[in-house]
């Protein structure tokens, strides 16, 4: 890396306020040299470029020491979006590919970023680790809890850095809020509440149809057992079908639950319950459009998450967010800052942020803050350390919301082993811990 590029990277990382030293991965000398070689440039492949992925491809390419070498998508139209985004960001020589398996065979690729449907997350990450690539994958960590466990195993076995797109882990204002909580600013915290709101419309009733010519539906399904194409599924409505998606709880609730778990310093709960339904519209949407998830951590604390997919009325003044309740006051956070109130509702401390954040934007709530999380990923690779949103940490947060969905789908109040997150004495719920795969696509560590 030349002097100017090195200086640029240092400035980008320093601006984030990110600390290092979160623990090394003990990469082999050969693999470490592969990343920080003579010119220290990272060759990144971007998978899934219809919306979020195209924006992130542009953000990755904006770093002086990154080349986006591939964009990969099963939809020719989305592929064109990715190519255009990289080229506009100054990328030269970017290649287009449809099949990620072919991309991962290229030994010049150092890292994979993906923004795919949920059923692809874990299989893509595992394949990338096996191919010797580092991974930055969007949330949720996995489609099922078992997949999250497999991702951790793959990351550790192949000594790869795996960062999950829980961007708030790298936002300076949220880091400051968590540090204040851990420092006792509101005393012992015993309750936390998160929420997400939107104004989504009906998806109607899909009809069997032939997949459009620009879409390779067979490859889009990939690891998922085959189902016929329907005209109300792609590109976004798959979120609401359990076969491919994970509902609003993991689509968005993962962010709030992760901040809550981080702030409380807890891992797995003892009991989980969930209520809600598809109240607003009657259509093909399978997951709840209105949902409450309750997570109890023994006698220590209680956590709730509220999702309102079809009513955008703000809560506590925000479209999404988190409130922590403690012995001496309360703290609001969620965006890049926080407010602290005493028990008389007086504002006693505030850290405001000038960042513009749209919590309902599915492609990029804040491009500048996305770059903060990318900078952490790059720095983790260069300095041989765990990233801020390491897969092992984000698996725990993801499992909390997955358990909420499992409780809702089974109508059971679940008893959980707090040492592992596993469900106790409920075969119906335990059957949803894993999933089946299309023959030949089973993830193998």
Strands ordered across the widest β-sheet = 14-13-12-11-7-10-9-8-15-16
Class from helix and strand fractions = alpha/beta
Count of β-strands: 16
Distance between the termini: 34 Å
Q: What percent strand?
A: 15-25%
The secondary-structure element order is HHEHEHEHEHEHEHEHHEEEEEEEHHEEH
Mean pLDDT, rounded to whole units? 91
Query: What gyration radius follows from the Cα positions, in whole Å?
Result: 21 Å
Given the C-alpha coordinates, what overall shape results? globular
Main beta-sheet strand count, sense and barrel state: 10 strands, mixed
Keywords:
globular, 445 residues, ten-stranded mixed β-sheet, six-stranded parallel β-sheet, 16 strands
Could you outline the blueprint of secondary structure elements for this entry?
Layout: H1 3-14, H2 29-35, E1 42-47, H3 52-61, E2 66-72, H4 76-88, E3 95-97, H5 100-104, E4 111-114, H6 118-130, E5 134-137, H7 145-157, E6 162-164, H8 172-182, E7 189-197, H9 217-221, H10 247-264, E8 271-277, E9 290-297, E10 301-308, E11 320-326, E12 329-333, E13 338-342, E14 347-351, H11 367-382, H12 391-410, E15 414-416, E16 423-424, H13 427-430
Parallel strand pairs: 1-2, 1-4, 2-3, 4-5, 5-6, 7-10
Antiparallel strand pairs: 7-11, 8-9, 8-15, 9-10, 11-12, 12-13, 13-14, 15-16
């Amino acid at each position: 890396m030349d002097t100017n590029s090195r200086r640029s990277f240092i400035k980008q990382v320093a601006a984030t306020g990110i600390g290092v030293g979160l623990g090394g991965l003990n990469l082999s000398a050969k693999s470490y040299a592969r990343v920080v070689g003579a010119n220290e440039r990272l060759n990144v492949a971007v998978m899934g470029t219809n919306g979020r992925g195209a924006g992130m491809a542009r953000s990755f390419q904006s770093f002086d020491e990154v080349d986006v070498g591939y964009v990969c998508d099963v939809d020719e139209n989305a592929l064109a979006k990715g190519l255009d985004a990289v080229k506009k960001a100054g990328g030269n020589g970017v290649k287009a590919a449809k099949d990620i398996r072919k991309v991962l065979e290229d030994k010049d690729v150092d890292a994979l970023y993906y923004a795919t449907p949920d059923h692809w997350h874990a299989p893509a990450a595992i394949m990338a680790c096996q191919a010797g690539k580092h991974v930055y994958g969007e949330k949720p960590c996995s489609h099922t809890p078992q997949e999250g466990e497999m991702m951790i195993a793959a990351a550790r076995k192949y000594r790869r850095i795996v960062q999950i797109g829980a961007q708030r882990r790298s936002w300076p204002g949220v880091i400051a809020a968590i540090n204040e909580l851990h420092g006792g600013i509101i005393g012992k915290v015993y309750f936390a509440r998160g929420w997400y709101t939107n104004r989504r419309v009906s998806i109607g009733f899909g009809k069997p149809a032939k997949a459009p010519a620009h879409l390779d539906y067979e490859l889009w399904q990939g690891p998922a057992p085959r189902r016929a194409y329907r005209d109300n599924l792609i590109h976004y409505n798959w979120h609401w079908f359990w076969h491919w998606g994970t509902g609003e709880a993991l689509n968005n609730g993962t962010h709030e639950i992760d901040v809550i778990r981080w702030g409380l310093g807890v891992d797995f709960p003892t009991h989980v319950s969930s209520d809600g339904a598809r109240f607003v519209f009657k259509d093909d949407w399978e997951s709840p459009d209105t949902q409450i998830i309750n997570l109890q951590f023994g006698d220590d604390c209680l956590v709730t998450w509220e999702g309102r997919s079809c009513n955008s009325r703000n809560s506590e003044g925000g479209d999404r967010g988190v409130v922590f309740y403690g012995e001496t006051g309360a703290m609001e956070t969620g965006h890049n800052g926080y407010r602290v109130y005493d028990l008389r509702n007086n504002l006693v401390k505030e850290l405001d942020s000038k960042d513009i954040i749209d919590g309902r934007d599915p492609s990029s709530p804040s491009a500048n803050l996305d770059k903060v999380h990318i900078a952490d990923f790059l720095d983790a690779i260069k300095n041989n350390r765990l990233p801020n949103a390491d897969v092992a940490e984000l698996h725990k947060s993801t499992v909390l919301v997955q358990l909420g969905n499992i409780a809702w789908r089974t109508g059971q109040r679940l008893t959980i082993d707090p040492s592992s997150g596993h469900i106790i004495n409920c075969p119906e719920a335990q059957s949803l811990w894993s999933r089946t795969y299309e023959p030949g696509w089973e993830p193998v560590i």
